[in-house]
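Q: what sequence does this backbone want?
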């Protein structure tokens, strides 16, 4: 199975197993979540499911609206039953790095508001230690961002300002910049680091999603899908 097929397989499995009629569903962001949104569109348009949605990015909201799905403001929703989202790294205890797609803040807010967070990945995202494959994205205010970078690097990483395709700094849906932080030996103490980063002035939040996933589904090239968690 090619990588794209693995993404689609795990996305379809998550939707078919976890989305129930009547739910309010959080829509993730990224190339794996893209397939989940398409499958949810089929449940609504072909199978008559009555579902409402909140989106973790403008991109996913536009995709969902294009499929005719009803996307609500998360402020107007009493409860999010389930969110299905991707991840950039998953460690053996289901701790995550997210945000290479640039949507980490909205993803974190919606994950925190969700009763269940189902993470969908292919096996290339599995790591023994966070930060060994992916950088840790940190969303920062534009004001004084080079000062924020300096403080980030005091945590032992190299922080690189993310650029868009046009070569200018990438701007998030919230109007902020992202620094991608590489830790040479990976992240030794994710819980400690999360707190240290988030007290740096100018930091909005970071891509460590700790004790957030209730389930992780992992697809493999032979077509099998493993489950971690509930
Ligand atoms: C976006 C994210 C994505 O969930 C993460 O980057 C995984 O994306 P993909 O499924 O394309 O690998 O955190 O901010």
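A:
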């Amino acid at each position: 199975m090619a990588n794209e097929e693995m993404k689609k397989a795990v996305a379809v499995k998550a939707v078919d197993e976890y989305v129930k009629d009547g739910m309010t569903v959080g829509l993730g962001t990224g190339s794996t979540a893209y397939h989940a949104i398409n499958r949810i569109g089929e449940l609504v348009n072909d199978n008559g499911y009555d579902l409402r949605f909140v989106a973790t990015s403008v991109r996913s909201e536009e995709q969902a609206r294009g499929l005719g799905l009803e996307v609500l403001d998360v402020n107007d929703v009493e409860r999010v039953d389930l969110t299905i989202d991707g991840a950039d790294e998953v460690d053996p205890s289901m701790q995550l790095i997210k945000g290479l797609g640039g949507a980490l803040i909205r993803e974190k807010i919606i994950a925190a508001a969700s009763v269940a967070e189902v993470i969908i990945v292919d096996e290339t995202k599995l790591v023994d230690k966070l930060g060994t494959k992916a950088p840790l994205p940190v969303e920062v205010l534009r004001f004084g961002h080079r000062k924020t970078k300096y403080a980030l690097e005091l945590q032992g990483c190299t922080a690189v300002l993310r650029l868009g395709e046009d070569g200018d700094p990438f701007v998030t849906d919230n109007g902020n910049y992202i620094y991608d932080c590489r830790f040479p030996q990976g992240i030794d103490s994710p819980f400690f680091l999360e707190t240290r980063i988030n007290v740096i002035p100018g930091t909005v939040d970071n891509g460590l999603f700790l004790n957030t996933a209730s389930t992780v589904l992992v697809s493999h090239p032979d077509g099998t899908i493993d489950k971690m968690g509930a």
